[in-house]
């Protein structure tokens, strides 16, 4: 689930680059050596972090992925759900959300909290140890004001949700053979896709973009350049062993690209999420 390299200032309904570029550019130029890597809080590395509990759970689940691998994936997903749940919990209580949109974000908030509960219970049912929630800083060190400026809140929400959709797809292969868990993960994936579509609609309604409810090619719309990593690779036309699927349809290349979400690796996701970890 690769999340963002994130945003320049999106004001409430307009961009203001005059006083924020230097600060924001400096945030995005920070290398991983300047921030703590997530191995203590995030898989993959959960097996090492959870010690004997993880090592003991090496039996196969449905004859495929080991239990330790499944727990690893679920803890990875749990950390991302922690991020989203806390973001929406704080957003709903901050007063930044427009009254007309509050019911939508209350529902999204409930979904994300339910995902946290489900993943925690599932990990425990496998005799695993749920990873603790990291401490999040959604301002990225003061570069953003998502709980003050509604434009910032919506922009981060879109980037988080678009990333979440691709992230779940990126981990699905690690759950093949664990049918019940794979089914649940794909159900969460579909909910994240609905969230992403609705947030995109709200950004357009509030005059911040003219985007569709889905990603077109590798376009980030009006989101600033640092978010490009969320969308890279979405212009892919190779599917199911066919090099270019436009060769078997009359649908345009853009339409074909819109029809598929491309997976993000755990490495890509962690590189983005690290911007929000204290």
Describe this structure in words.
- The protein has 278 residues and is mainly α.
- It has one domain: Ferritin (Up-down Bundle), CATH 1.20.1260.10.
- Helices cover 48% and strands 0% of the residues.
- The chain has nine helices and no strands.
- It has helices at residues 21-28, 46-50, 52-56, 67-94, 102-125, 150-172, 179-205, 253-258, 266-273.
- Helix 4 (67-94) packs antiparallel against helix 5 (102-125), helix 4 (67-94) packs antiparallel against helix 6 (150-172) and helix 5 (102-125) runs antiparallel to helix 7 (179-205).
- It is globular.
- The two termini are 19 Å apart.
- Mean pLDDT is 79; it is low at 1-63.
List the helices and strands and how they pair.
Layout: H1 21-28, H2 46-50, H3 52-56, H4 67-94, H5 102-125, H6 150-172, H7 179-205, H8 253-258, H9 266-273
Helix pairs in contact: 4-5, 4-6, 5-7, 6-7
Largest sheet: none
CATH H level, superfamily name:
Ferritin, core subunit, four-helix bundle
- Using the 3D structure, state the CATH architecture: Up-down Bundle
What is the number of domains?
1
Short summary of the structure?
The chain is mostly helical. 48% of the residues lie in helices and 0% in strands. The two termini are 19 Å apart.
């Amino acid at each position: 689930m690769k999340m963002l390299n994130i945003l320049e200032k999106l004001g409430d309904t307009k961009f203001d680059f005059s006083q924020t570029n230097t600060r924001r550019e400096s945030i995005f130029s920070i290398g991983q050596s300047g921030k703590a890597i997530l191995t203590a809080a995030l898989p993959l590395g959960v097996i090492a972090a959870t010690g004997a509990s993880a090592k003991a759970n090496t039996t196969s689940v449905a004859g495929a992925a080991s239990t330790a691998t499944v727990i690893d994936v679920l803890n990875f997903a749990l950390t991302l759900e922690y991020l989203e749940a806390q973001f929406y919990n704080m957003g709903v209580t901050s007063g930044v959300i427009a009254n007309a949109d509050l019911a939508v974000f209350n529902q999204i908030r409930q979904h994300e909290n339910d995902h946290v509960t489900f993943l925690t219970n599932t990990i425990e049912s496998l005799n695993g140890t749920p990873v603790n929630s990291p401490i999040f800083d959604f301002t990225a060190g003061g570069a953003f004001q998502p709980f003050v400026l509604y434009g910032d809140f919506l922009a981060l929400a879109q980037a988080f949700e678009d990333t979440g959709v691709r992230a779940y797809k990126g981990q699905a292969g690690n759950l093949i053979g664990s049918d019940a868990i794979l089914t649940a993960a794909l159900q969460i994936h579909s909910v994240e896709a609905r969230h992403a579509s609705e947030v995109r609609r709200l950004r357009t309604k509030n005059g911040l973009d003219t985007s569709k409810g889905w990603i077109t090619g590798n376009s980030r719309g009006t989101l600033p350049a640092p978010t490009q990593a969320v969308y890279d690779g979405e212009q892919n036309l190779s599917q199911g062993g066919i090099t270019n699927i436009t060769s078997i349809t009359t649908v345009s290349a853009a339409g074909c690209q819109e029809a598929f979400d491309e997976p993000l690796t755990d490495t890509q996701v962690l590189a983005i999420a690290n911007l929000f970890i204290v």
